[in-house]
Amino acid sequence: AWARVLLCLFATSHCQDTDNSDELERLGARGPVHVVEEIDVFPEPEVWFRDYSRANKAVVIKGGAKLSPAYTLWTDEYFASKAGALSEQVVADSRARPPRMHTFEEFLKMYKETNMYMVYTTPKAFRSDVLLPPPLRCGGYVDQLADTVMWFSNGGTKTILHHDDVENINCVFDGRKEVLMIEYPKYKDKVILAGDGYSEVDVDHVNFTKFPELMDVEYHLASVEEGDCFFIPYKWFHVIRSYGRNVAVNVWYTPLLEFNATDCDNLQSEFKLQSLDMLSFRSMDGAYTQEESARNHGPPDDLRVYFSGMLGEHDALTLEGLIKHLKEDKSLMSPGIKWTDAMTNIGHQMFSVLDTDGDGIVTSGNIADVDDEGGMASRIGYSVTCT
What we know:
There is one protein chain. The two termini are about 15 Å apart. By secondary structure, the chain is of the alpha+beta class. Mean pLDDT is about 80; it is low at about 10-15, about 285-300 and about 375-385. The radius of gyration is 21 Å and the shape is globular. It is built from 15 helices and 12 strands. About 25% of the residues lie in helices and about 20% in strands. Helix 12 packs across helix 13 (about 340-355). It has helices spanning about 1-10, 45-55, 70-75, 75-80, 85, 105-110, 125, 260-265, 280-285, 290-295, 305-310, 320-330, 340-355, 365-370, 375-380; strands spanning about 35, 40, 60, 90-95, 100-105, 115-120, 145-155, 155-160, 165-180, 220-225, 230, 235-255.
């Protein structure tokens, strides 16, 4: 969702906890660590709902990513052959502050020699190469699809400790990942997050004196190899580290309250899995309702609605006015979050995207001119830490 773009950017614009103490250790160094269950095939949708989603249980599906053509197709040479995707603007340096935009072609030429990390709604040209994870094919899951994101780097990346208000199936087509998780809601009072859903803990150098509650939780560790998929249950806290050339696609979806078995009964016996290009995702289609947006405690999912709201009854919005609105937005500037120079830079970047005619003010016409299908959100930037 576009709201996630803003929240992720602002969450990573304030510094994590740092300390020069000699007692700093990596997250998970203290407390029991459980190895996440591994299974050989995706379960049927009803079994998935019962044994993993409703049971609130993480799992690794060995070989799950191999079902998709992307597993064998997605070489750099293949990517370069997709002329329609090469000119597409993507966030290809999301660790920079503010994130830098490049064309997909530029990213392909540079990522191996740099620390660039592409994090972007799965480009249209590649969605046909990725199949919907089999457990989501019926039962009501198709109506719950929220977003699909492509994660592409040369490795050596990590997220901060955070959680998401969705369930997550992530399939790794190249490279490997290490996923450290803490169960929610069991330890919701032990993991201290800012209002944006992100922790200030430095996951490589945890000060257990400052965060003693992190010694009182159980950790779940998943080792995900090339060709595997993994499942992060709703709101589980997690940190993900990636190694080697790393290409993955995840599907975020809202958990089901009840499983619709009739929906599965209506499938044809020779049903084939749909590829992502055949499906609707709410973040792409702008289909979130105001009620859902309010429940997620974030800005409206259509950024044009969000910025139009800043105009109110005024004819135009200045840079100073936009930054003032951002500073006063409690869904972004929650308790514990302090305004930083990096946030000011993001504000400048937002304004430059909105000021389509470069006259120094933003009008309702400027906002309407910005393409909402990935255009506004992707140019403002998608943070590396939103996995």
